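Recall from the previous lesson that a structure prediction takes nothing but the amino acid sequence as input. Here we apply that procedure to Carboxypeptidase Q from Brevundimonas vitisensis. The sequence below is the only information supplied.
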Amino acid sequence: MAFLMSAPAWAQDEATIVHAEALRDRAMAGNQALAIVTDITTRFGPRPAGSEAEQAAAAWAADYMRANGFQNVRIETFPLIGWERGEQGGAITGPRPQPLVVAALGHSPATPAEGVEAQVVRFTSLEALQAAPETAVRGKIVFIDMGQMRPMQDGSGYGPQTRVRGGAPAVAAAKGAVAFIMRSAGTDEDRMPHTGTTRYVEGRPTLPSFALSAPDADQLSRLIVMGEPVTVRLFSSARTYETTSQNVMGDLPGRTRPNEIIVLGSHLDSWDLGTGAVDDAAGGAITLAAALTIQAGGRRPARTLRVILYGSEEVAQPTAATGDGGGVYVRNLGEAVADHVVAGESDFGADRVYALRLPPGAQGSAFQQAATRVLYPIGVLASNTPELSGGVDIGPLARAGVPVFTLAQDGTRYFDLHHTANDTLDKIDPDQLTQNVAAWAGLIWLIADSEVDFRAMRPAE
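The prediction returns the following tokens.
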């Protein structure tokens, strides 16, 4: 186990900590991540999963890794059902015409060419829709309005909203609805809807489904509460198509234990409304810049660093063969998953890191104390909450037994921008982005140049 108290081991560990502090300070003085996120968002714009833009961005990222000294750079391609938005629109048609600002939800099917028009039935939760009799829903447009999502530092208000977005269209379809709309899963009050994926049911899409901007959701709810029947017309020309997505990965091989792998993850795909700056070009920039900071520090760590830019994080898929990059990566690893000592991902924007959550058993350990020494000066506190799942991309690694950590970012404004046309480069604060890189570089060096074994730290089941 790392950071032992015997004199010979401590001397080596002290040098590791001091170098981590130096890497932290080197990162704080640079802006490499900003250059990377600028390249990705400017060169390629939005990068929907499976699109030509996502594929071109992946090829660029592989070239970037090779040009900057990464080894074993490869692109891991897998089949995908892509989704293209096409044209979309919505309007209240009765009792009096009013426009609605809507965004089709990912992988929902198109409406008929003439659109779909029907009376709206409103629910305030998924459970209320589930409990409703079929007679209340059949032939209608289902509208779920759970109220405005509240901004929280940890983003914990998002889960209940995504549960509605992912599962409610299937429930509405089973009860005979003709379309589905919901209040956007976001914390802003802008007239910009938040898109996001729906789920397939038995390999098939469900209903034409849309998100309403917050002001439009308020307007529709007020009108319905007034008591008159309300009708809405919706239109979408969305389509699906067969394509491929890919994971891009490259290694900085370890000096003495190259078979022990640390994964630094993020995802390269984005939604199509903005340019995917905070979700998640920023994450790729942070992890790449952290690895390059370590490389530029003049010492190779003992363990291998593997930066992975996953594909197809944003969308649901109809079969196990088509998929998300995180699942594909683990399936292709096979038994080699045992070589992975820890994984982390950056996928919560570009605002500052405020806490470090380590795998179970590491709380209060000498490793956590060393990490606190390195990270506290830049405002990162040690958390006693263990990290169990990691995130969408590294979740499959966690389920396969790989320990995961989180450098928790301040998500207070993340869901103002998430999945909207407002997710653009100008929303990134360069200083906060740089602090992310410093936290990643310092922490990853501590893990990579030590013998810390998070698997052995785990408490008994």
